[in-house]
């Protein structure tokens, strides 16, 4: 007799900068199809999407929060030292809307992946203070300032685990993964910023081929690759892309898709 798993449906959300708005479109589609995760694991933008949803907000409400300000309001340019950009606006936005101050106050269990720069290992936060691990998980190295938690320094979880299946693997009846960092052909890389971002994406996604087959359902909209890391003005389009891709996958499941997608 099979042992009953701890969770019924686990949702794993990758990092991906503003492409994370596609996560909210996916969640809307899942809910419309009667699929409600009972645990979420996320990295970076995926961690932010997971936390706000687990805090009781609908995907549409989350989108509304980010429409209140322009990109320049989310980030504050500072003199380079430990990072080029300070996420003051993002921190203020999360402080304003996050009702839960700790993981335990969320309506769903959430795992947030961040990279411990001191140990060089990924860590999965799921207890205690919520805001610092959340900001740390989204702090892309060099671009954003790292976050100190206790005596250690943390940066974007994608550095070590951009698709954090580990916290829920083997503990769920159904694993749904949403991956918004596809690696497609790019003809032009015209400046240092584009090269740096491309290098980061290539590095953090090297293990996706091994992780994708572990998902029962994998949703990975390739079209999001047409949008830049900080292209906040395109949030509605990214939401729509995620929504439509999720409906397509849910209505016409193709088990081979999750392996074919990453074996080009």
Task: Name the features.
alpha/beta, eight-stranded mixed sheet, two-stranded antiparallel sheet, 264 residues, globular, 10 helices
Task: Characterise this structure.
Helix 1 runs antiparallel to helix 3 and helix 1 (about 20-30) packs parallel to helix 9 (about 235-250). Helix content is about 35%, strand content about 15%. The protein is globular and about 40 Å long. By secondary structure, it is of the alpha/beta class. The protein has helices spanning about 20-30, 45-55, 60-65, 70-75, 90-95, 130-135, 190-205, 210, 235-250, 255-260; strands at about 5-15, 40-45, 75, 85, 110-115, 120-125, 145-150, 150-155, 170-180, 215-220. Strands 1, 2, 5, 6, 7, 8, 9 and 10 form an 8-stranded mixed sheet that branches. A two-stranded antiparallel ribbon has the order 3-4. The model is unreliable at about 75-80 (pLDDT under 50).
């Amino acid at each position: 007799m099979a042992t009953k798993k701890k969770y019924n449906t686990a949702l794993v959300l990758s990092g991906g900068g503003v492409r994370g708005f596609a996560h909210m479109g996916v969640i809307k589609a899942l809910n419309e199809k009667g699929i409600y995760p009972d645990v979420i694991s996320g990295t970076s933008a995926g961690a932010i999407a997971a936390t706000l949803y687990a805090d009781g907000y609908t995907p549409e409400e989350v989108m509304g929060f980010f429409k209140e300000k322009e990109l320049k309001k989310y980030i504050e340019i500072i003199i380079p030292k430990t990072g080029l950009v300070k996420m003051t606006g993002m921190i203020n936005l999360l402080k304003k809307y996050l009702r839960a101050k700790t993981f335990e106050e969320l309506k769903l269990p959430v795992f947030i992946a961040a990279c411990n720069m001191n140990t060089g290992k990924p860590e999965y936060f799921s207890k205690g203070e919520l805001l610092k691990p959340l900001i740390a998980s989204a702090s892309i190295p060099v671009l954003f300032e790292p976050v100190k938690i206790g005596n250690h320094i943390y940066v974007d979880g994608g550095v070590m685990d951009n698709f954090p299946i580990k916290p829920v693997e083997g503990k769920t009846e159904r694993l749904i993964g949403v991956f918004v960092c596809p690696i497609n052909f790019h003809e032009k890389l015209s400046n240092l910023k584009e090269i740096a971002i491309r290098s980061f994406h290539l590095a953090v996604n090297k293990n996706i081929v091994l992780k994708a087959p572990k998902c029962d359902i994998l949703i990975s909209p390739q079209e999001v690759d047409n949008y830049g890391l900080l292209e906040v003005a395109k949030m509605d389009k990214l939401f729509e892309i995620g929504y439509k891709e999720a409906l397509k996958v849910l209505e016409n499941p193709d088990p081979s898709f999750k392996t074919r997608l990453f074996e080009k």
